[in-house]
Specification:
Oligomer: single chain
Number of helices: 11
Structural class: alpha+beta
Strand content: 25-35%
Helix content: 25-40%
Shape: elongated
Length: about 375
Amino acid sequence: PPRSTLFPYTTLFRSVITPNVYNFDLWKTSGHAAHYKENMFIFNVEGQEFGMKPMNCPGHCLMFGMRQRSYRELPWRVADFGVLHRNEMSGALTGLTRVRRFQQDDAHIFCKPDDVQQEIEDMLKFIDFVYGKFGLKYEMFLSTRPQKYIGEKATWDEAERQLAAALNNNGREWKENPEDGAFYGPKIDINVFDALGRKHQCATIQLDFQLPIRFGLKYNSAAGVDATETEERPIIIHRAILGSVERFTAILIEHLAGKWPFWLSPRQIAIVPVGADQFAYGAEVQAVMRNEGYHCDLDNSSKTLQKKIRDNQLAQYNYILVVGKEEVENKTVNVRTRDNQVHGAKTIPQMLTELKQIGRASCRERV
């Protein structure tokens, strides 16, 4: 699979969509029925149990196993932003940081044993890039075999060894978190610190030797021109970087105090006409900005000019473009920022050029 041009140390994933509900037999096969049922939403249809998916991996296993696979297809990477449901206790629910319905930037890599090291090292670099982009500090843990697990101890030992080797090669400090792995494999957990110094578990990398066995997953392997093809089991790497998108959004709101960088801001530009006579021109400027792909709103309220400017600054619009009689005549906008810095009059082409330069620069820099 091709390497990303934006992130040279990561590879591209195939985007897939899987069902929200499965017959409970699937969860018996995966092991979730025995180890995770109390955290699932279960219901009965025509005398059969069904469960809403708390994670995507069993569905991805079905996709991998739907036909014969060759070693040439591996690593086989799929990403799924599907909705997940987990039956959390009501006392554990906290704003956006812990909810019962959420989405993950969930991905699974089906690979050969000799692919594992490089895949994990690439993921750790990608995690550092993403968290660095937002200026977030984080710590890493290797979560090892829990008391309640499936599979052979020797298999677990090998999985833990490979994860530890990848962490050592990454060069960042890490700690061991004994007996906190998933029931099907050890994992690397990432705790992110928000602006108040609180820890949130976000990214995770899990090495899984068990689900390929439980689902009977195999690929044809052959080494050399005259080698005889044999069937081998893939290894699954579970990966999320943001973790719960809802939780990561909550962390960023705290961390940035609502002051989103221009490239990510849901409120990039506010057009503020001085009076009703400038509403039509303000709408024209808004249309131009939206046509260029920017989030742009028009404040055509009856408030005073100073009140509108202040309200839009408090709403954290990155740019407030004031249009009065002079701006209408000259086809310009008067530019100021949410921090009340006045940049003066600019033509629409000048403003668009500046916004494009700011967008490119902010995408390259850290928040």
